[in-house]
Design brief:
- By secondary structure, the chain is of the alpha+beta class.
- It has one domain: VC0802-like (2-Layer Sandwich).
- Helices cover 17% and strands 42% of the residues.
- The chain contains 2 helices and 7 strands; from the N terminus they run E-E-E-E-H-E-E-H-E.
- Strands 1, 2, 3, 4, 5, 6 and 7 form a 7-stranded mixed β-sheet that branches.
- A hairpin with a 4-residue loop joins strand 5 and strand 6.
- The longest helix has 11 residues.
- The radius of gyration is 15 Å and the shape is globular.
Amino acid sequence: MELKVIDGAFTVCKVEDISGVDLSAAFCFIGKTDEELSLVCHTADVPKSTVVREDGWRAFRIEGVLDFSLIGILSKLSAVLAAAGIGIYALSTYNTDYILVKEENFARARSALSAAGYTVKD
């Protein structure tokens, strides 16, 4: 399985509303529940309406379109990273999944994934 490094620094945050979110940005992921409105975006694109934020994330994308019948993809990736002592923030879209790790763990995460047989490309 191939993973692609997504360039740039990312921020995970809660926002008051999406009016300040740049939906034309290269990467913008919004999650809304009955309790919160979350945003993951490049750090440079964080809106002013941010309530709380956590900077310093890097991202990997699982390459290709994943069929909904596939089982255990995130589980296997997260197990590799957990064994290396690396926490993740996972995102799923219709097509694929993304894994974010803290910047200070990025090189170790990349090495652990490669050692587990994953191809990691820039």
